[in-house]
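Each letter names a residue; structure tokens follow underneath. Both lines appear below:
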Amino acid sequence: MSINQMQSILSALPLPMMVARRADNQILFVNKQFAQLLETDPADLTGQINPGGFIDPADRQDLFRLLAEQGFVNEAEVRLMSRGGHEIWVLFSVHPIAYEEDAALLLSMTEITKQKQTEIMLAQRAREMETVSKVSAFATSILQIDELLQSIVDLTKEQFSLYHAHIYLLDKQGTQLKLASGAGNIGRQMVAEERIIPLAQEQSLVAQAARTGQGVIENDVNSNPAFLQHPLLPNTKAEMAVPMLVGEQLIGVLDVQADQIDYFTQESIEVQTTLAAQIGVAIQNAHSFEQNLKLFTEAEALLEITHKASHFLELDNILDEVLDKVLAATGFKIGLISIFNPQAEQLQLAAHRLPEPMVQSIVQGGLKGSLCDLVYNRKEAIVLTDLTQDAPVDVTGLIESGYHSYQGVPLESSGEVLGTLCLFHTDRLAKEDANPSFLTAIGQQIGNALQNSNLFQQAQLATQEAQQSEEVLRRSEAELSQALEIAKLGYWEFDVANDLFTFNDQFYAIFHTTAEAHGGYQLSSGYYAENFVYPDDMALVGGEIGLALNSTDQHYTRQLEHRILYADGGVGYISVNFNVERDEQGNILRFYGANQDITERKVAEEAMRRLTYAVDQSLDGTAVADLDGNLTFVNPAWAQMHGYTVAELIGSHLSIFHSPEQLEHEVAPANAHVMKTGESFQAEIGHMRKDGTLFPTLMSIGVLHDANGNPIGLSAACQDITERKAAELQLRENQERLAESNRISKLYPWEFDLATQMFTFIPEYFEFLGSSEKENGGLLISAQDYATKFVPPEEAAIVANEIGQAIATKDPNYSRNVETYNMTVDGRIIPVLVRFRIEKDQDGNTVKIIGANQDISEQKAAEEELRRSESELSQALEIAKLGYWEFDVANDLFHFNDQFYSLFHTTAKAHGGYQLSSGYYAENFVYPDDLGIVGEEIGKALNSTDRHYSRLIEHRILYADGGVGYITVNVNVERDEEGNLLRFYGANQDITDRKLAEEELRRSESELSQALEIAKLGYWEFDVANDLFTFNDQFYALFHTTAKAHGGYKISSAYYAQHFVYPDDMPLVGSEIEKALTSTDRYYTRLLEHRILYADGGVGYITVNVNVERDEEGNLLRFYGANQDISERKAAENKLQESQARLAEANRISKLYPWEFDLATQMFTFISEYFEFLGSSEKENG
């Protein structure tokens, strides 16, 4: 064939074609289509040798390698760059030909640019959606808000190849967006700056996204004069802000930045909007978890404080501990407990956690006029969310010391305020955090404990005084009787005729004075009454004297008691013994008597009266028995506690309050201990009521002694601790559940004491490290030993640096989450997540680090699987029970909460409250076409006999603002053993975003399927261990058949070969599979062509792209590839070859021998047939 003929043919073909000399790669010919594809002129290419700039260097190298190995190239995928700068994708084929008697190469190209762009776009979208799934799945596994936000921004930046990512959260007032987390160290520095963006700020992309509820893009920030470049992010070129919405509730904004102009597209917004919605749900879940955790912490603290307050009647030693518990539970920084002192008539500091200057100020100036004093006087809780706004007293000193909020409650018991509990914080309080109910409950518990302590102390004092007074009275009565008879103590006589009393020195001593002070031993009755008789008792004394004078008894005697005035100003009591003697005619012979000071006895009697009242009014039971165990006294509380009346119990034996087992094992040992040692004894002892029921008590037993120290009886006090024991049981169960949770989550708490440089671990942590508490010599280990034994050398500097930062920080709330490694005794390296926080003393020094190490080896192993598993995202989303509800079947009433109404874009107020009938709910919120589904599911739940029925359904809903959404409904029904319905409850979750995402995914999958169908591509994967191929619908379509026709998507290699491989090509296919399996390349790839059998009887051609991936040890991980039908291309190639053969035959028949003459080289180029025509040959001619 002549050169002209060949060039004519190549020019007529629609494909871009080029001919190059094989020896030096000089271009001999290009057709117009080839030049047009590269946006150049044929003349510019012809004659050039190895023209560069059009083909990617790596692709060029691969083409030459294939050409050297195979001698030809069939449809290799190659990326070109036209002279105009446009990217072009082609299928590149190279075949050797003879051209002007030179060995040449014929190059042809099929443009696949649009197909390739579609594949790239679909692959990019699949990767992005996979990344969204991974980030979402990871986010839903974290419930600690700071850790959650940091993980999200770090993962988003990494997975989407962004320059930076950060999250703004809407404040509780809904007016500002605060930077909550940023990627990497730069992000943490920006968060430390406390960046805030007002929601109304017009120029801010973040504020705009928040206001509009839609994603916003600025693809060239430098062209926007309103954009402010942050010095820590100097390379920001493009920015995108996407709102994080849960329903219509704005949670915050996800803001991402790129270092390239025009980086973001509308598709980017769609992807990031999906991600932002999932992040919003995760944040809301984390907030709910933190709120529940706060409530649990408060309840646990209240229970522990109640427990301590009920156990200790002397509170001086525990008030500091109680205050520490309150501060830890509430998060307040400092606080104090004050108790009112009646003698000083002011509040006094009883316990505190205050800076030293504040303590000195209180010691010097007291609490008068302070916020605590105001709480005491008002007798009510006071909450100040911002001390700079309308404080009722002067708080300048507090503000200057850096405190901005306050909560104070009275310590109250039975309506009496005994003191105050006051807390201060450096931050301002949000309105929703200003509820003082928890503190009020604590105040009541402390108040009750103070009241019990006071009553106990009064009872002890009164008992001591009564015992002392009784003994004094017994001795004094005997001595006084003898003294009055022998020494005439306090003796007096009255001279009626002269109205004169005659006293002695002992008499004056009673009144704390002397005869000399009053002018002698004789006084008139008026002087005596004025100076020594209590004014209110003068009438009583005068009346008694009148009775004595008017009596006709020969030996009149009378005794009375009245109050007197001590000369030194006090008031006392005396008993007066009147004696009048008369003769037989009734004339008075003598009027005399004796006075006795009975003040101490009266005081003792008053103390006894108060004691009796206190004991009678006490909520604790009190009883007294003789040494035989017979009751001589019980108070009403003791009787009521045991189901008796007081009258029933007097004279009864103590044994009636206990079962035989309790008497033997609990009561008898306690009584024996008390009688033997003489010491009081307190223990938990079981008691029995009148009806035989048993209950637990906290019982105190003591011995009563007479004046000589001899035991005369037993006293007992007890508290019914049934409720406390139930609370302790609940606490133990909670602790066991927490321990089980730690065991399941492989969480090992610890403490580090900076003063001693010692760690304290739990036994399970040493077991985790391959050691034991016994081997370590206890639970304590020094920092140096810990680092040497259990920290890999390369991690030691990281651990030391973290401890150093914890010591140096000024932030009292400093905490960290760090991923590092532990080293076990046998040398295994295990990844751990270390979470810790610090505690500082009053001077701001770090004194303790409290933390926990968590084994995250399973989490790390699961991360790879998470990247490929979208199903786990679905499971993780099902964990969150948003929009909780309960259904009262008997009254046909649903009970909803605020979160439930928010799902429907409305509020409880808009629908009259939190209770709705099923009919109202269905009419207003259920999509009409789905009413039948919902009704049917409710019927199934009500008719089910399962004790724990559970069902998950999806249906459409009506938003209150007019839209239509989707929800999942988790329906739960609980029944008792008889089948009676106990509870009908569940939770709804808005899955509208997920539904839209699923629809988008279905659309993307459809587009991908169409693209694969157009390209005639079918993917496959080969399970070597089980000898199974896994195909898809596009694969079966290549063979003109379906999966159904062959029993599914999985078939054996033999079945595949028998039905689809052309018999003569089976050895070729088997050989290629063998090469792939025996190759040691980690990433083996191979391209081959072979014939196939169509299911409808024809024969075709396919290219097979074989890929094998192995791990570092050479183990096979994946064996996969793709087949492409090239039958049409093969037919075109065959047709071209036939045309060339016919052309050659026509030349031979017509004896036509084309040639060329190169004037520059003066050389002819002939075809081989021409040399034969001349009787020579190509070989002879050289």
Notes: The first strand starts at residue 17 and ends at 21. The radius of gyration is 50 Å. DSSP finds 38 helices and 47 strands in the chain. Residues 437-486 form the longest helix (50 residues).
